[in-house]
Specification:
Elements (H helix, E strand, L loop, with lengths): L5 H20 L7 H7 L6 E5 L10 H9 L4 E2 L8 H12 L6 E6 L2 H8 L6 E7 L10 H5 L11 H4 E5 L14 E5 L1 H8 L6 H9 L4 E2 L1 H4 L12 E6 L7 H10 L3 E5 L5 H4 L1 H14 L2
Parallel strand pairs: 1-2, 1-3, 3-4, 4-8, 8-9
Antiparallel strand pairs: 5-6, 6-7
Helix pairs in contact: 3-13, 4-5
Length: 288
C-alpha cells in the first residue's frame, strides 16, 4: 500500500473542505473549460445602417448611439445615390470587408439597395426595412411609389425636384441622356419627409444639406430579392407621406417580414429612434 504525506493529506482535506462548503452554501464552483465555451454568448452582429435618398449617415445618429450603448458595433457607410446597380455593388463591396454576422438595415430608397446587395451573402443574417421599399424582381422606386394612392411624390417630377446636370468626367463614360441629379424642392421637402414632430427649423436644415439622387435610381429595376432567403423585419411609419402605409404593408407581407407599425413620418429613425432601435435589436437577437 502506498503512503500519503502529511502535506498531501492537508491538501486533500482542504479540497474536500472547500467542496463541502460549496455544497452547503450552494455556491457554484468554477466551470470546466468545456462547459464555459458551450455557454459563452455568441458575439453580437455588426449593424450596418444604410441611409436613403437625399440624406447621409447622420440621419441614423440617434439610432446608432442607442445601438452602440447596447453593445453593438455600428457602421453607417455612405450610399452613393448614383443608381441601383452601382449603389448595390458599392454596398456589397463594403459588406465584404466585415467579418462575422451582419444585420443590414435600409431606410427608404436604401431598401432597394440592401435587397440587391445582400443577395447570396451568407454573413447577412437579417434585413431590416425602415419606412423602406421592399422590392420584388422587376420593381422600381417609381412603380412602387405610385402603386397605392397617397404619396406626395406621385406627381409631375418638375413640381417635385430641382434638376442639376451630371458633368461627364474627363476621360470617363458620357452621362446617359436624361440622367440628372435630383434635389427635392424646399417647398416639398417638409411635406414629404417630416411632420409636426420635427421643427420647421430642423426641416430647413435637412433640406439645405440634402445629397442629390441620380434620376436613374427612380427607374432602375430590382434584381432577385435577398429577402427570399434572409429573414426580414420592417418598421412602418403610419404618417409616411412618401411610401403609402398600404404599400409598405403589402411589401412587408410579400417578404414575410416581422412588422411593427408606429406613429411616425418617413423619418421615423429621427422621430421614433427607440422603436426603430427595438426592431433592429429584435432582428439581431433572432440571429443568435
Amino acid at each position: 500500500m502506498f503512503s500519503v504525506s502529511k502535506k498531501t493529506r492537508r491538501v486533500v482535506v482542504g479540497a474536500a473542505g472547500v467542496a463541502a462548503l460549496v455544497a452547503l452554501l450552494g455556491v457554484a464552483g468554477p466551470a470546466d473549460a468545456g462547459t464555459s465555451s458551450l455557454n459563452a454568448a455568441k458575439p453580437k452582429p455588426t449593424v450596418v445602417l444604410v441611409h436613403g435618398a437625399w440624406a447621409d449617415g447622420s440621419s441614423w445618429d440617434k439610432v446608432a448611439a442607442k445601438l452602440q450603448c447596447d453593445g453593438y458595433r455600428v457602421v453607417t457607410p455612405p450610399n452613393l445615390l448614383s443608381g441601383l446597380t452601382n449603389d448595390a455593388a458599392n454596398l456589397r463591396a463594403y459588406l465584404d470587408t466585415i467579418t462575422g454576422p451582419v444585420v443590414l438595415v435600409g431606410h427608404s430608397y436604401a431598401g432597394m439597395v440592401i435587397t440587391n446587395a445582400a443577395l447570396g451573402d451568407k454573413d447577412v443574417k437579417a434585413l431590416v426595412y425602415v419606412d423602406a421599399y421592399i422590392p420584388a424582381k422587376g420593381d422600381s422606386v417609381y412603380a412602387l411609389t405610385g402603386a397605392q394612392p397617397g404619396s406626395v411624390f406621385a406627381a409631375d417630377p418638375s413640381t417635385l425636384f430641382d434638376q442639376v446636370a451630371i458633368p461627364t468626367p474627363p476621360g470617363g463614360p458620357e452621362t446617359p441622356a436624361g440622367v440628372a441629379n435630383l434635389y427635392v424642392k424646399p417647398s416639398i421637402f417638409g411635406k414629404a419627409f417630416a411632420d409636426k414632430s420635427i421643427s420647421a427649423k430642423d426641416v430647413a436644415v435637412l433640406a439645405a444639406k440634402q445629397r442629390p439622387l441620380a434620376f436613374n435610381a427612380l427607374v432602375d429595376e430590382s434584381g432577385d430579392p435577398a429577402w427570399t432567403t434572409i429573414p426580414s423585419w420592417a418598421v412602418v411609419g403610419k404618417q409616411d407621406a412618401i411610401i403609402p402605409v398600404a404599400e409598405q404593408l403589402a411589401m412587408a407581407k410579400r417578404a414575410k417580414a416581422t412588422t411593427v407599425q408606429i406613429n411616425a413620418p418617413h423619418l421615423s429613425m429621427i422621430t421614433a429612434p427607440d422603436a426603430v432601435t427595438g426592431q433592429i435589436e429584435a432582428a439581431a437577437k433572432a440571429t443568435n
